[in-house]
Write a structure and sequence with these properties.
Layout (H helix, E strand, L loop, with lengths): L1 H16 L21 H13 L11 H8 L4 E3 L6 H6 L7 H23 L9 H26 L2 E2 L15 E2 L1 H18 L12 H14 L3 H14 L22 E5 L11 H5 L10 E3 L1 H4 L28 H5 E2 L3 E3 L2 E3 L7 E4 L4 E4 L16 E2 L5 H5 L9 E5 H14 L5 H15 L17 H15 L6 H7 L3 H4 L19 E2 L5 E2 L34 H9 L12
Antiparallel strand pairs: 1-5, 2-3, 4-12, 6-11, 7-8, 8-9, 9-10, 13-14
Length: 574
């Protein structure tokens, strides 16, 4: 309880520190002359830095979920999703408010970290050097975490490691993205060398957090040698393991598993909680189903023989959910599957919903014939949709949202080694551990899952793209992946199709290319197409190269101009 009281006090203190500055207030939090004088005050300030990990957007969902569903090919949203729905529909601009909120939120976290790092020496006489160092390096890792979102979303951005008290001093120029990445990588290496290998308190920054973030940033930046080295260090450290049950990992039962490295924490009664249940859940439980997976997401899951469905001998469009990678039904609620005691069915002709025992429950609110926006593509996200919240008609869930987990480390390592063309048994081991876990079997049980044995770089490049797409679906990785792979201009400007409506007569299989792009050319009539004008996000638009970066918020440009300075805009005619 003491920690929770500290948490609330910290939130109050930090919000009170925010001045009335306009767009760059996030770069500064005024320093009180007597604060940071003891360990308790340092802990309060550090809690404030951690609090910036809580980052919610449309429907109070983590902004990472807004990104995946609003602006990539794997999901669809219905309005108001941190402007990523506008990005997906091509209607965004430099005035899109969600992008300004992201920019401001990240700089606020950076400002808090800088304030703490630059002032913690005030307590040097009463706090041990070991404790001061741990606080410093925790804050440095969190600062790097906030910066990595800025550079991979916006490109070149203002960079500072100091406390800025004068608003005019905050009118900093944009710094080359690669230079910022150099700084982040150096900070994370230093932190990894000084942070403890383990911590008793859950969800605190420790060595593996720094190394995992270092690996992620290096991978995103195409620095594959560094990415592989950091991922290997985490693997060799032996502190982490995959949770044995993939589906359970995203439920309350999966919290605190040996796989989670860092999470966005939520607790009933403390702060705003994410509305996964109302945003993603079944309308038969009073939810709205405004965030849903697309048909191309469904078709991206391999068949049980380890092949894409367009190459598999065991895939049948008449039974499209059978003989599939188990992560499909673990992540997505498919038609005729059980959910919360009912049989979920999204077909427009299905006007009544049945209980699992076959009895009629009532009208089927998951059919758009009954309620117009229901189950737009015919599917619902199961991942993070808390069934207990559904059954209680509760619109919120306090399940932690995982920001880093061990599966990412394994796939970062595998991809980096593949790109370096250093393919060996360790690459197969990393891939197969993730794939075996999906099937709920040990990695050595190679007859029970489609184990990877190929040494061909081209084949493995295609496989890793499919693997990341399905392993991390609805977790916030897809936008960064399709940008760094330079395939966003291929996978994004499409119409988002829904389920097969006449499975009994289905015979077509979409083409899936080496990048995992699912094409319905020539077979569109087999799939549901809901072009209701109230779903503008369903018709995707992508301007190349403009949409590979978000625009610098116009409010920032205007603030600079009003104070006699300037900051450049990203190309694209904003």
């Amino acid at each position: 309880m003491k920690k929770f009281i500290y948490f609330i006090v910290a939130l109050f203190m930090i919000s009170a520190c925010d001045s009335d500055l306009l767009d760059l207030e996030s770069l500064t939090e005024p320093t009180d002359a007597t604060f940071f004088s003891n360990e308790e005050e340092l802990d309060l300030a550090l809690t404030g830095v951690y609090n910036s990990l809580i980052w919610l957007g449309g429907y109070n969902l983590p902004v990472q979920v807004n990104m995946d569903n609003g602006a990539t090919d794997i999901g669809l949203v219905r309005g108001g999703f941190s402007s990523f729905d506008e990005l997906g529909a091509g209607s965004h601009s430099a005035n899109s408010g969600g992008f300004l909120n992201i920019y401001t939120h990240m700089y606020r976290g950076i400002g808090r970290a800088n304030n703490l790092i630059n002032n913690l020496d005030r307590a040097a006489e009463v706090v041990s050097a070991e404790r001061l160092n741990q606080i410093k390096y925790e804050a440095m890792v969190l600062r790097a975490y906030f910066y990595h979102y800025l550079v991979f979303l916006f490109g070149d951005v203002p960079y500072t490691e100091t406390v800025i008290a004068n608003p005019l001093d905050a009118l900093l120029p944009r710094v080359d993205k690669e230079q910022i990445i150099d700084n982040l990588m150096a900070d994370l290496q230093e932190a990894a060398q000084n942070l403890p290998a383990n911590v008793e308190e859950s969800n605190r920054v420790f060595r593996d957090v720094a190394l995992t973030l270092h690996s992620r940033i290096a991978l995103y930046a195409g620095r594959y040698g560094e990415a592989a080295t950091s991922a290997q260090a985490v693997i060799n450290g032996g502190n982490l393991n995959l949770h044995p049950n993939y589906e359970e990992l995203f439920t309350p039962q999966g919290e605190g598993s040996a796989e989670a490295i860092l999470a966005m924490p939520f607790r009933d009664g403390f702060g705003t909680l994410p509305n996964f249940s109302v945003a993603q859940g079944s309308r038969n439980f009073g939810a709205y189903s405004v965030v849903v997976p697309t048909q191309s997401m469904i078709d991206s899951y391999e068949a049980t023989d380890g092949l894409p469905i367009d190459e598999s001998a065991v895939y049948d469009p008449k039974s499209p959910f059978e003989n599939r990678d188990p992560r499909l039904k673990a992540s997505i609620i498919t038609p005729q599957s059980e959910w919360g005691g009912i049989i979920f069915e999204s077909h427009p002709d299905s006007l009544e919903v049945r209980n699992v025992d076959g009895t009629i429950r009532g009208r089927n609110n998951d059919s758009r014939t009954v309620i117009w926006p229901a189950a737009f593509c015919g599917y619902l996200w199961k991942k993070y949709t808390n069934v207990e919240s559904q059954l209680q008609n509760r619109f919120w869930s306090d399940t932690d949202f995982t920001l880093m987990r061990y599966a990412e480390v394994l796939l970062n390592y595998a991809e980096s080694k593949i790109e370096l063309n250093e393919i060996d048994a360790s690459v197969h081991e990393a891939l197969n551990r993730v794939r075996a876990r999906a099937y709920g079997v040990p990695v050595e049980a190679t007859d029970s899952y489609p184990a990877v044995t190929s040494m061909d770089q081209s084949f493995l490049r295609s496989l890793i793209k499919r693997e990341r797409k399905v392993e991390f679906a609805n977790e916030g990785f897809r936008l960064f992946d399709i940008r760094r792979w330079n395939i966003a201009d291929k996978v994004m400007p499409v119409v988002l199709y829904g389920r097969i409506l006449d499975e009994a007569n289905a015979e077509h299989v979409p083409d899936i290319d080496e990048d995992g792009f699912v094409s319905y050319a020539g077979i569109e009539s087999q799939y549901d197409l809901n072009t209701d004008a109230r779903f503008p996000n369903a018709i995707r638009v992508f301007a190349n190269p403009r949409d590979y970066l978000l625009p610098i918020p116009q409010a920032e440009i205007d603030t600079y101009r009003a104070n006699g300075a300037s900051i450049t805009q990203n190309p694209g005619g904003y």
